[in-house]
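Researcher: Let's run the pair from yesterday's discussion. Sequence first, then tokens, for each.
Model: Starting with the first of the pair.
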Amino acid sequence: MLKSLLRRVGAALGISLLLGTVPAGARAPQAAQPALWEISDPDTTIYLFGTIHLLPENLKWRTPAFDKAVRQSQQLVVETIVDQQNPQSIAAAEAQLGFKQGLPPISQRVPPGKVGRLRAAIAKTGAPEQVFNQMKTWLAAITLLSLQFKDMGLHGKDGPEEILRQQFLSAQKPIGQLETNVEQFTYFDRMSEKSQRELLEGALEPQGNTDKEFGGMLSSWSKGDVNGIAVTFNRELSQSSEIRKLLLQQRNANWAKWIETRMAQPGTILVAVGAGHLAGKDSVVEKLRKDGYKVRRLQ
């Protein structure tokens, strides 16, 4: 079973809509120097920055090298634009893809031993169980996981993407996205029911189970330890070839192709995506290198 995959995916693999993070009680470093790369030719520079979508408050993760890249960038490109103040786009995407008539009751989509935990989590949302009966399993999983983060007192304002988005907005620089909200949810919607139920079970795990996992992942990210991030995700994703293909390999290939196309245009941009997409043999970085691009590590 993919025990904590849902949390891992949100934190560093890069589903921005699924705002994964480090539990508030986890031991967090005071400063970080996450990995940053550069791809360039005579008239184009693309910086690649791997993020964790939410971070502990007061973690100092910006460095002189990173701030220089931000200043030089004329545009920010993220996985998908998540507007914390105006969630209508996400709500519309959920309504479009996440509901269906005639589904099995949500209580029948988890093992009997976890029904009590499921119902307790649903009760916390304030929505009747009948609403969850109409949700596809992946949306139920995301909804319940988001509740856990809320209970931890975690907010999107501390994530690098939101901080960068506000900075580029203030500087009146454009912000682009690699995927729309609907496109991101589509990857979940294409999963088999079996994989969706594994994600739902992961969303029901006790909060305490996450501390050690995310503490280790945050440590790797903070040190720019790309190999450490890759090992974590390869171990977890190896248990489901379907999830690995949909959430990692296919998206990485799409993004590498986007970057290669963008290299034909002049200018300087910053691309900020989940750190899991920039680590390991299937990463965006490795795909670019295999296609003949020189990807230089800046930090």
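Model: Moving on to the second of the pair.
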Amino acid sequence: MATDERDILELLKDELDFIEKGGYGRSVRTPQQSKSTFQDSLTCINYGYPYRAHPCNECHLLEFVSPEHRTEAVPCHFIPLNTDGDTIEDLELKDNEAKLERQVSAWLRARIKEIEEQRA
């Protein structure tokens, strides 16, 4: 159960904004290091900590992860992003950053719309 007190709708909107502004692009200082979706943004409850200060089961994103993947090292990377069941993990292995960003953005838009409709 998530104990993160932040609003999930605002988190998802901020993540989408982060992606649309190029947030996961390569750093000029460390271009050899790729960034990790969700982990390298403020969406992650452990962002900015050199170690995991909070267990992933405190994160809102866990509700989108199927039960069999909730104990993975990075469970949010196992969120099914589309009807084919592609996950962040799958798309990172294919090393296609543009497709990954498109799929995550589409997933975020869909979740934002669902939550806004539920709250209306």
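Researcher: Give me one sentence on the second I can quote.
Model: The chain has one domain: 8-119.
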